[in-house]
Design brief:
There is one protein chain. 62% of the residues lie in helices and 1% in strands. The protein is an all-alpha fold. The chain has a two-stranded antiparallel ribbon.
Length: 689
């Protein structure tokens, strides 16, 4: 029997090829996964703060012609349009990069705004105004806005993967696709990409400032590491430019000035002098940004926080006055918030876009949650410091988390709210790295995950992916978001107010006619709850007045507006709405209820509030005529005609008033003028038109 010849050994792919394939293949996977998880947001409407930076921002709506304003002023200036009102949040905000992107998208994809005659609208500077909301929810500029977010998020997952490979398995050390570095880099990047805590950032177009800030910071650090390993100083210049762009997107990128030296200390053999040199481009970019910010906003980096609860959560009501939290209350509340952040990273449910007062209560060190949060953070910091000399990646992950979160913790300076899930976007990298490193330590001696670890990890990734995809649907539009999240944070005055306002707006749509009364009453309920939480909050009273007006509960409407004016006597919207409602109340009581006394009470008040209102003047003329006071009727119809001298009906009304007091010549003269303007005026008026 002949012996078979042994087969030739199969050629093995070089380790470098394996590493290259590993990086390429999983980069594609991460990008596709990140994009796929948020694909359901592409046809969503604008929501929440999109108004501030996009469709209600006078500079963004100019398209590229608005670049100058976006670069010259506080980021909120284009929304408030009045100097001084843009700095509602302590220190102001200078984040021009993403608004420049929005303005470009508006220029390219939004239609021109047109007046009633169909002509393009120009602003006071003569620039064309675009309308990002034209076409409703399904329009090109909204689609592109969401698409850019989705693509940039997918790209962030890729850059994070490259960065982690660079620090955990540098090109010279990565011989294949297995081992500590590849495992942790991939596991951490996957956990980051699927984590539901990022839904606010990606599903909301305005969240792009967070995406670009982190993307630029990671890319800059990656370039710096490449410059270090490859000796290419030009990459350091590129790192500085990219980092400067990250800062222009959002200021929290500045924490990378600390992350850079920390990274070089942990993962390279660089001496202190070299670490400083690698950090220098980041310091230079940060210094340039700070100088630019000062030139625009001045030297106020924090200053005294506002004295309004919705922009300063560390106020409490004592008697009839808001006073500051004590130091212990503020510190305890901040630690409680840090504890909630940790909990949401581990178990991201339920989620909310809003944590305004009093979603987070006034906490003390007598609360067990506060004590637990303090102990947890002391333990994390203690472990990180103890393991610092050992250059333990878990220590690095903890420090990355704490450093990048510090700027939004309210310990450094007030940020205007207790917390927001988007503030975890950058710090979640540290969390993901800690989890991935600890998982690797559960692998067997060959570096392969144990079956239980692998199955558990895949289960978590799948669960997080499902949560992310389903949570996105809450961001479909403001109505869906507010009515969903109010169930999670019922103690937020701001969200109660927002939900009430959105219910009022939706109730006026034709498709909701059958539900109008129900929706308006539901809105009033939310607005009353907002006032219970924050008795000094004037906006719920304004919206409540509107809701009661639409319900034709005019006396309740007037009372709400008057309460708002007690809080702020210069509240313009409340003043104008009060005048309109008084006029409508006068007409209602006169025409529908036959109560002429009440009609006069409200019509006189409407006239007092707005002497130029044609309709109030007309109704006072009618009321006086019906009451038999012909001279007064002539007086008010004359004033009405003065306001609208080309209105045929105004001439007809005045002619009728003169007829009633027996002045035939004046009657004929005015009637002739009315017919000159509208030959059919007599038939129309007699027909009730």
């Amino acid at each position: 029997m002949s012996k078979r010849k042994p087969s030739a050994p199969k050629p093995q792919a070089p380790a470098i090829t394996q590493a290259s394939n590993f990086r390429r293949n999983f980069s594609i996977l991460l990008f596709v996964l990140g994009a796929a998880l948020y694909a359901n947001t592409l046809f969503f409407d604008y929501a929440v703060d999109d108004a501030i930076v996009i469709y209600d921002n006078e500079f963004t709506c100019k398209g590229t012609a608005g670049f100058g304003g976006l670069l010259k002023y506080d980021t909120f200036r284009g929304f408030f349009k009045v100097e001084g009102k843009d700095k509602l949040v302590s220190g102001g905000r200078y984040r021009p990069l993403t608004p420049l992107m929005y303005a470009t998208e508006v220029q390219l994809f939004a239609p021109k705004k047109r007046d009633v005659a169909g002509q393009p609208v120009k602003d006071k500077d003569g620039d064309t105004v675009y309308d990002p909301n034209e076409g409703g929810k399904l329009n090109a500029v909204k689609f592109v806005g969401h698409l850019v977010n989705v693509l940039l998020y997918g790209l962030t997952g890729v850059v994070l993967f490259w960065f982690l490979l660079k620090i955990l398995a540098p090109d010279g050390q990565m011989k294949g696709s297995t081992g500590f570095g590849p495992f942790v880099a991939l596991a951490a990047a996957l956990l980051f990409v699927v984590h539901p805590i990022h839904t606010e950032v990606v599903a909301n177009v305005k969240g792009r400032d967070e995406i670009v800030s982190l993307l630029g910071s990671l890319a800059a650090l990656y370039l710096s590491l490449k410059a270090f390993y490859e000796g290419k100083n030009g990459l350091n210049v590129a790192a500085a430019v990219v980092f400067f762009l990250a800062l222009l997107s959002k200021e929290n990128a500045i924490t990378f000035v600390a992350i850079v030296p920390l990274t070089f200390f942990f993962f390279t053999n660089a001496k202190p002098g070299k670490i400083f040199l690698q950090t220098l481009p980041f310091l230079a970019a940060a210094a340039l940004f700070i100088l630019l910010r000062i030139s625009v906003l001045g030297l106020d980096f924090g200053g005294d926080p506002p004295r309004e609860l919705m922009n300063n959560p560390f106020l409490k009501l004592v008697g009839n006055q808001y006073v500051d939290f004590s130091f212990a209350e503020k510190t305890a509340t901040n630690f409680f918030t840090l504890g909630k952040y940790l909990l949401l990273l581990v178990f991201p449910h339920p989620l909310s876009h809003d944590y305004y007062p009093r979603a987070i209560g006034i906490m003390t060190f007598g609360d067990w949650q506060v004590i637990l949060a303090v102990l947890a953070h002391l333990a994390l910091l203690g472990y990180a410091l103890v393991r610092l000399p050992k250059k333990d990646p878990v220590s690095y992950g903890i420090l990355f988390y704490l450093l990048t979160l510090s700027i939004a913790s309210n310990f450094v300076f007030p940020i205007g709210t207790n917390m927001n899930e988007r503030f975890l976007y950058m710090p979640s990298i540290g969390f993901a790295m800690v989890v991935a490193t600890l998982l690797y330590r559960l692998t067997d001696q060959t570096g392969r995950p144990k079956p239980a670890v692998l199955i558990g990890g895949i289960a978590v990734l799948l669960a997080f992916s499902v949560k992310t995809f389903t949570r996105n649907f809450a961001w479909k539009d403001n109505y869906t978001l507010f009515t969903t999240d109010i169930k999670t944070v019922p103690n937020s005055a701001k969200l109660r107010n927002a939900t009430g306002g959105e219910l009022v707006a939706q109730s006026l749509k034709p498709e909701n006619a059958a539900r109008k009364t129900t929706m308006l009453n539901e809105a009033v309920g939310h607005l009353n709850e907002a006032m219970k939480i924050h008795p000094g909050y004037k906006n719920p009273l304004l919206i409540m007045g509107n809701a009661y007006n639409y319900l034709q509960q005019y006396e309740a409407s007037i009372q709400a507006y008057e309460q708002a004016l007690k809080l702020d006597p210069e509240y313009g919207e409340a003043k104008s709405n009060l005048a309109i409602t008084c006029r409508q109340a006068g007409q209602f009581f006169g025409e529908k209820k036959g109560d002429i006394a009440k009609a006069f009470t409200y019509l006189n008040k409407a006239y007092e509030l707005n002497p130029s209102d044609y309709e109030a003047l007309r109704l006072l003329g009618v009321a006086n005529g019906v009451s038999g006071n012909g001279q007064k009727a002539v007086e008010f119809f004359t004033k009405a005609l003065e306001k609208e001298p080309n209105n045929a009906a105004a001439y007809y009304n005045l002619a009728s008033a003169y007829y009633n007091i027996g002045q035939a010549d004046k009657t004929a003269e005015l009637m002739a003028k009315a017919k000159e303007i509208n030959p059919n005026i007599e038939a129309e008026m007699r027909g009730g038109k």
